[in-house]
Amino acid sequence: MTSSHGRRRLHLATALDRPSVYDADAYVAAARLAERGALDFVTLGDSLARPGPDALAVLSRAAPATRRVGLVPTVTTTHTEPFHVQAAVATLDWISRGRAGWRIEVSTTEGEARLFGRRDAAPADALWQEAGEAADVAARLWDSWEDDAEIRDVATGRFVDRDKLHYVDFTGSAFSVKGPSIVPRPPQGHPVRVVDATNRPARAVAARYADVALVRTALPAQAAAARAELRASAAAHGRDPDDLRVLAALDVDLDGEYAADPGHGGGGPRTTARGPLYRGGPVDLAELIASWHRDGVVDGFHLTPVEPRRDLERLVNGTVPLLQHRGLFRTFYPGSTLRDHLGLARPANQYAVARGAS
Q1: Which entry of 130, 156, 257, 339 is 20 to 30 Å from 329 by CA?
Q2: pTM (2 decimals)?
Q3: How crowded is the C-beta side of 294, counted as CA atoms within 13 Å?
Q4: Which contiguous run of DSSP H or E holds residue 29?
Q5: Residue pLDDT, tens place only, 116-166
Q6: CA nearest 340: which of 81, 66, 64, 69?
Q7: Which residues in 113-147 are b (16+ Cβ under 10 Å) and which e?
Q8: Cβ density class 171-182: b for 16+ within 10 Å, e for less
């Protein structure tokens, strides 16, 4: 997580959400703008509860139009088949050459359940337990092909080495999966898994399975406490806590007509009905980011523009250069994959490791 000169890396991401916008070109342009700012990744929300474009399909369209920025769609684990979800995310990793992520979410409402008619709505605790199982089985399916399973031997007509394909045989609380996957192991090994860990039911899933955890709070002390708890819980699950990035999630309103509110870092943030909101200018936002990062509160920020085009432009053209000038944020991508951007190693294949140890 440290750069070549020993300083902790700062990670920055942004949301591309635009209510009622269905034209893929708008999202592609925003993703390319985020890439110009060397942001780690972009997210695109999705929900069965409201109209909107399919996030995974839109970011699949953005993949060939971008070269470095990570692409992280929201895909719910409720009312969907984990086998199909993991295959779709793996496919995004292939077409983006290793830049895919998956923001894991659940669907809690009765209205969403009625869209499918297969089950009733369930409590958040149960749905997040199921989401954890989906995250677990996805990793197993991504590993169900070893990296060198494809042999493509024309002379013998053998496409794959069957000894390097593995059956998952997973039975969870709401589904079972045999495997192997229909998609070869993704370029990143495991596409990056992102979980909003603000609410308690999701926090255990984030600690155990997420590469990136988001925490929505306006208070640095609360963000620091959540980061410490997530890291401790990750360690309790046998993970290296340094393999988990914790980002503060803020809405940002960079309208220059508003003077920055007095407060930490110059411009807030403040708690609102929608969640934590920063309102001020790009300079004060840079100061807030630098301050929270310097104090070890979080590993970075996930920022949602209130006015998508204006605020993303001011973030990329105003805040980011100020952070770069201070040596806090990179000026170019040092690698090609989302794991490279986040400073995360490519996971070993669990089946290959087990076979080698036997």
Answers
A1: 257
A2: 0.93
A3: 12
A4: helix 24-36
A5: 767 777 788 889 999 999 999 999 999 999 998 887 776 776 778 888 999
A6: 69
A7: beeeeeeeebeeeebbbbbbbbbbbbbbbbbbbbe
A8: eeebbebebbbe
